[in-house]
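In this supplementary section we document a worked example of the pipeline. Step one takes a protein sequence of length 119 as its only input; no multiple sequence alignment statistics are reported here. Step two produces a three-dimensional model, which step three serialises into structure tokens for compact storage. The input and output of this example are shown verbatim.
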Amino acid sequence: MNTCEIGRAGENKAVLWLEDKGYKILLRNFRKRGFEIDIVALDKNRILRFIEVKTVHNGCLSDAAFSIEKRNIINYLKGVDAFLSANKEYSNSKVSMDAIIVTSKDLHYYENITSDLVF
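The serialised model returned by step three reads:
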């Protein structure tokens, strides 16, 4: 399995998990102005969730968590802004940037990963 296939399998697993938890998947792989958001979903409380998915194939959980760096988050926030600009119906929504790390055995969901960042 190549890197793209591993990533796609991880995203598919994440989508199934989110749907099982009652999330409505709005978009996958939203691309605009050079930015990509893996999953855009609406949760049961109508919070708009922008979700980065990292799949661990050969490595450890912390490797995937640390691969989401400040520069990635800054670019991701630009992607969120582009999504909101293109989808005005969500412009007043509460938003959260989340991450899902998929391993061969399980899935780890982290909400609001930008809450402790200092820019």
